[in-house]
Amino acid sequence: MAAAACLNLLVINICVISTVCQLANFAAAQGQHSVCQDLQPSPALTPFVDPLPFPKTIDISNGTQLVMGAYKITQKLHSQLPPTTLYAYGTSQTTATYPGPTLQVTRYKAAHVRWENHIPDSETFLITDRTIHWANPKRGGVPIVTHLHGAEVESIYDGNPDAWFTASGETGPEFVTQNYTYPNSQRASLLWYHDHTVGITRNNVLAGLAGLYIVRSPSEEPKNLPSGEYEIPLVVQDKQFWANGSINFPDIGDSPSTHPNWCPEYFGDTVLVNGMVWPYLNVYPAKYRFRLLNAANARFFNLTINEPSLKFIQIGTDSGFLRSPLTLSSLTLAPGYRVDFIIDFSGITPGTKIYLNNTAPAPFPSGDDSLLTKIPSVLEFRVISTPQGVHPPSTSVPQNMNITLPTPAYSLTANVHRKLTLTETDDADGNPVLILLNNRSWVDPVTESPKLGSVEVWDIINLTPDAHPIHLYLIAFLLVQQQEFNQTLYEEGGCSLDSPFGDPQSCFTESPQPPNAEQVGFKDTFITYPSKVSRLWTRWTNREGKPFPMSIRSSSMRETGAASRLQFSNQLTAES
Ligand SMILES: *[C@@H]1O[C@H](CO)[C@@H](O)[C@H](O)[C@H]1NC(C)=O
Ligand SMILES: *[C@@H]1O[C@H](CO)[C@@H](O)[C@H](O)[C@H]1NC(C)=O
Ligand SMILES: *[C@@H]1O[C@H](CO)[C@@H](O)[C@H](O)[C@H]1NC(C)=O
Ligand SMILES: *[C@@H]1O[C@H](CO)[C@@H](O)[C@H](O)[C@H]1NC(C)=O
Ligand SMILES: *[C@@H]1O[C@H](CO)[C@@H](O)[C@H](O)[C@H]1NC(C)=O
Ligand SMILES: *[C@@H]1O[C@H](CO)[C@@H](O)[C@H](O)[C@H]1NC(C)=O
Ligand SMILES: *[C@@H]1O[C@H](CO)[C@@H](O)[C@H](O)[C@H]1NC(C)=O
Ligand SMILES: *[C@@H]1O[C@H](CO)[C@@H](O)[C@H](O)[C@H]1NC(C)=O
């Protein structure tokens, strides 16, 4: 899929894979959860005994091709846990890590990465359900294909789920090349790369195939931000373990007669940051900038700080800086979300321990307590005295990030207004078996064709019982509003979503609500809530409102396994 398009991240890939999807959430609404989620608890692991590790940073801005492979490795994920078998990205077998190295690029400087597959297994070690739509290589092996989430990139380099390849050289139907070029034309922001293979993305990302990708833009970035050792990448992911260190992953499906192995949503009982279970981070009484990714399969995080005097000073989202910072007590993150924030520890007495905690139910937003992690924390900050001779630089929180947003977004005229429903269908036992966007699945033909350069309003009508992250490829968009409606009445055909709130015919039960704090600013992933219509403002150009700096051949759109494909109706060349 080239690029433009929509897809719900990991949660959605789950659905791509098969069909059931919502069972967990469905059951959660009744105060239960799915039997396949009843995993044996992880062994006891003392929290906060291991320091936060940092993936190595590789700067690829000089244009030299980086060869990045996927390998099978073992890695210690907690000092009390035996080494864990993982799949991991790296430049060699011995240097591959989970998460993969952080790739750093400079805006407008193209980077070249050759992706290789060195995984020797005959199948993915986290069980593959063969009854769902997946890559299914004839000669076996573990297919991989890497997607750079958030990139403005040409189709053939976008990591189409059907562009997979195995170590032995078998390729999927959309495969073109392993040598990818990233133009890096999007704004300074934190992207992430991860496996994207059709049907097993959830397995391979949980197995470890994910890493960060930082786009720097010196002219764009506010001066005086905390940097160097004061800029901290955080890749957050939940996992559950057997006593021998292996990942505990369900192998009995929710609806075993339909899908013997597939469990719709994975929730682990431990939280890892940068590949370590519940680590700690020493900080000086100074400002730190954090670049955080939620790389979980299905878990949302609602982060809080247990020291009330400390706030999250959010300066950026998925797609770059906010116009001005937001001071927040909590940060809600769906899978795929990135957030850029500052915490100012300046006033904290050395010796103090502070916790980054999580208050989000699982599934979000209406789960019961049974799928929460063993402790509600993500990370411990240990505030320590600044050693003699060390002088934390004088950094500041910018008041204005010099970002021009079209405001208010909804005042902009749109050429096209699309409405897309997100639905699920159930099997005879009432287990959801299929998730569809506009009643279409991944294999259906293209239905939506935005014109390059056009402005469109998209309404996503969530008729599932669950919140879903939705990711549009290629562009950054603005969430304009979300509005609740009476789904029962809507499904009875007794009202209209075309009539405004207050009209007797209207399905809406409230006036349009502006996005909540975590959904403000340019985004590439947002949360659809059940029984709400989410309205997006999209512009099918690059972030400057200009043509994309590459030729876009076609693109597709997917959401929860399903979806409409989407194709640009005109072609664009590099110079236009
Ligand atoms: C480009 O950067 C890479 C990674 O930092 C480095 O290994 C390589 O030597 C550099 N190439 C040139 C031509 O400077
Ligand atoms: C891809 O990159 C490799 C390694 O640099 C090179 O040997 C190969 O010729 C390239 N293939 C294509 C199709 O460009
Ligand atoms: C780890 O333990 C689990 C549960 O007993 C078992 O299924 C798995 O095969 C073990 N893994 C290894 C590498 O021994
Ligand atoms: C996140 O947690 C905070 C503190 O518990 C709470 O006030 C807020 O409503 C939560 N946000 C969401 C979206 O649940
Ligand atoms: C935050 O986490 C710490 C450490 O796990 C825990 O002791 C504390 O109770 C948590 N606070 C809240 C409000 O959950
Ligand atoms: C704001 O951004 C514009 C273009 O993006 C740039 O020309 C200008 O110098 C910036 N202003 C400041 C104060 O950084
Ligand atoms: C969805 O598609 C199926 C089969 O293609 C069809 O039977 C059904 O009526 C469609 N539902 C809606 C709401 O259009
Ligand atoms: C939604 O519609 C149903 C069916 O007409 C009705 O029973 C229910 O009271 C409505 N709910 C709300 C919140 O308006």
TrEMBL record:
InterPro entries: Cu-oxidase-like_N, Cu-oxidase_2nd, Cu-oxidase_fam, Cupredoxin. Residues 552-576 are annotated as: Disordered. It comes from the Eukaryota. Gene3D superfamilies: Cupredoxins - blue copper proteins. Keywords: Signal. The keyword Hydrolase does not apply. Residues 566-576 have a biased composition (Polar residues). CDD domains: CuRO_1_BOD_CotA_like, CuRO_2_CotA_like. SUPFAM superfamilies: Cupredoxins. Residues 1-29 form the signal peptide. Residues 145-219, 269-349 form the Plastocyanin-like domain. Belongs to the multicopper oxidase family. PANTHER family: BILIRUBIN OXIDASE (PTHR48267:SF1), CUPREDOXIN SUPERFAMILY PROTEIN (PTHR48267). This is Bilirubin oxidase. It comes from Riccia sorocarpa.
